[in-house]
Write a structure and sequence with these properties.
four-stranded antiparallel sheet, Rossmann fold, single chain, 11 strands, 2 domains, N-terminal domain of TfIIb, about 250 residues, alpha/beta
């Protein structure tokens, strides 16, 4: 899992995703975090979209991320007395120091694990750190066959001011390998600072899953009890589902 967000990606992350990512998952994950009766860990905590609200509501929440640039932004948003709650760690080998009631990995974090071996390591590592009855909740997108076949080439999915007079634009290119089930993703950020213009490209990979493959993966893990829903309202999977919402219980 080597997807580390650059300082430029982190700089514009909140601005861009407040527009291109709806709040479709917000109520779901925050509800689960607030209902937890014990310590909660958010994997891929980023700049704190869920973490900050959960902490504000009194949740005993912790966060890990492998991207220092994202964690730096998050730390600038919390009191120093809460710095101990966030750390640079990996989903495959994190150590919080005590059992967890709930672990969440929102917004496709699990898809950054490309190899099956790493996926199983992560699942089993989380299982080992949960209390009996504890849960691991994560989400994945359901592949769109048309988009897998056609891909995207230099599509501008965001344009907006990040401060008065200065604009950032993001261009997305992606293509998928149907054999390895990996989506190769490239994002180019173009922005100006007054008269000066800048550009940076960030590359990543996402491993996409199909339903029965996902079920088989979970069955191979230590988790023997799980549910896979088709949306964030926990409705059953259907032909209209766009997300796998996975709830595993120890």
């Amino acid at each position: 899992m080597d997807t580390i967000y650059s300082s430029v990606f982190a700089r514009f992350y909140d601005l861009i995703y407040s527009k291109v990512r709806s709040d479709v998952d917000t109520a779901f994950f925050l509800k689960k975090m607030k209902e937890a009766r014990g310590a909660v860990l958010e994997v891929g905590v980023g700049t704190g979209r869920f973490f900050l609200e959960a902490l504000k509501e009194g949740t005993n929440v912790y966060g890990i991320d492998i991207s220092p640039a994202m964690l730096e932004i998050l730390k600038n948003r919390i009191n120093k007395k809460n710095y101990y709650r966030v750390s640079q760690q990996d989903i495959r080998n994190f150590d919080i120091g005590f059992p967890l009631c709930l672990v969440v990995a929102p917004f496709r974090v699990f898809m950054h694990l490309i190899e099956t071996a790493d996926q199983l390591i992560a699942l089993n590592h989380i299982y080992d750190h949960l209390v009996d009855g504890g849960r691991f909740i994560f989400d994945l997108y359901i592949p769109d066959p048309g988009l897998l076949a056609s891909g995207m080439n230099e599509v501008m999915d965001f344009e907006g001011e990040y401060e008065p007079g200065n604009v950032v634009r993001r261009f997305v290119t992606s293509h998928s390998d149907l054999v390895t089930q990996v989506n190769h993703l490239s994002m180019r950020f173009d922005w100006n600072e007054g008269e000066k213009t800048f550009s940076e490209t960030w590359n990543s990979q996402l491993r996409f899953f199909f339903r029965f493959e996902l079920e088989y993966l979970l069955q191979k893990s230590k988790f023997k009890t799980y549910s896979i829903f088709g949306d964030y309202q926990e409705n059953p999977l259907s032909g209209d589902s766009r997300d796998f919402v996975v709830v595993c219980r120890k």
